[in-house]
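Consider the following assembly input.
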Amino acid sequence: MALDEDIYEIRREKLKKIEALGHPAYPRKYNYSHTVPQILAEYSGQTAEELESARVTVRVAGRIMTIRLMGKAGFAHLQQDGQRLQIYVKKDAIGDAGYELWKLLDLGDHIGVRGYLFRTRTGELSIHAEELTFLAKDLLPLPEKFHGLTDVELRYRQRYLDLVMNAEVREVFLKRSKLVQSLRRYFDGQGFMEVETPMMHPIAGGAVARPFKTHHNTLDMDLFLRIAPELYLKRLTVGGFDRVYEINRNFRNEGLGWKWNPEFTMLEAYQAYTDYLGILDTTQSAIEQAVKNVTGGTKTKWGEHEIDWSHANWRRMTMREAILHFWPEKAGAKPERSDFAAHESVKALVGRVRGAGISLKYDAAEPVGKTIANIFEAVAEEHLMQPTIIYEFPTVISPLSKQKPDEPDWTERWEIFAGQMEIANGFSELNDPEDQRQRFEGQLKERERGDDEAHQMDENYINALSYGMPPAGGVGVGVDRLAMLFTDSHTIRDVILFPLLRPEKTSPAEAEEEK
RNA sequence: GGGCGCGUAGCUCAAUUGGCAGAGCAACUGACUCUUAAUCAGUAGGUUGUAGGUUCGAUUCCUACCGCGCCCA
């Protein structure tokens, strides 16, 4: 039998034999002289003759990914930091005891190797092993060495195997890390202070979304996982931290999809004494810098497309302009700007969009501004491949934004789109406590109408504003989505190390119990 | 939540019209002191996602459920 558990038993026996040879089964450490990538970087240029005359001795640690045995010698590849280096193990060179250990090693084991660098007859840089050190055993078999691990479900459920087997997956997460690092350095460099605000909120505010609920036992109070840190960060601007940012998780109790995960990472930043255009400049620069730091250039591949992030390529249009610009031919003549002003004319636009075969949710009782935003999403969003700034959002869907002085139905708010995704959202922060109260009251009416995503009243926040919040621009940037765009990953799950999955029901009884 | 698709050995995949469930890698035994998807000889490994149904006979057809994916809401 060679079931999984039997391989486990066979390898446990091998581990006992390794111990019997005098090697600890789980040693504490190994002092390596080089990492595998360091050796490849430093010695790849050297010829066989150069290596022979220099006789470079190294100590390297890694996981065994291939083994080729030939009688009393053999080759293996060690993998470390996603790169591989070949070792040559010859009985003459490592001695009888060393060879006994060598024969007990399996694919996936961690070992240390001391030896000298040389080139094989085929020219591959390798270590001529003189001493093997056992470091850790792999008791379960790795996925197949040639095809690797491709099953999507297993890749997510056992991400560690995905990372061992698939170098490109490893690369995606390295890039994600560089992205976060770049954003952090950029905002630090601009004088922003990184802060941490609560993840558990008595009132889930700062965005329109359904929250997750939890409960604190000692205080016997319900709490909500935050849907946004916004209201706390703005309290800090009241407190005199003029430039603050936070990079952390938000939680929204909504569906899953290619660009939606219930927990996702957002950068939020607030900059006092500027408005939506000021924070837009900051955001755009941060993103342009991040593209360079992560990819080394200004262009990224996105499926069939190429996204050009260079400054001159960013487009800018108002939401209303975007609707006109991307108005579908099948929906007839482009709307007039005045069509956006009245309930009846907007309703007529809905009919024309639907007539063009585009699905669009519409409730005649909903405010005009909400309908216009829905029309924008229906007709324009799919066309926003290159970086595009859409600005001027309806007031009714922007309860935390300052209104335009000349058009109170519209706010000083923008969103950045790229790759058909919203990736950032910024505005002139509403700091008038009385206006804020009215906006919340308006939201409560929406809630009564049946919109359970509408914002709740937050007296505590209004109280903070009443002490005087400086004028400020603020922004939220979707870090996962930027990571998707920078790595050509077309599902958010490919940029989240451990995405949410349903629990596996391993036995029928378990599934039955669930019912 | 709805529609469509997928689920076969540890991994990657086959299986003709409903007719003995197979291969490669991994594993085990043996040979081999420059291989690299090493090679050669041999061995073992399966409740075909789960539970039912139709049938002489089900991986294959039907129903329900579980999980995953895609599209829609």
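Confidence is low (pLDDT under 50) at residues 506-515 of chain A. Ask yourself how this observation constrains the way the partners meet.
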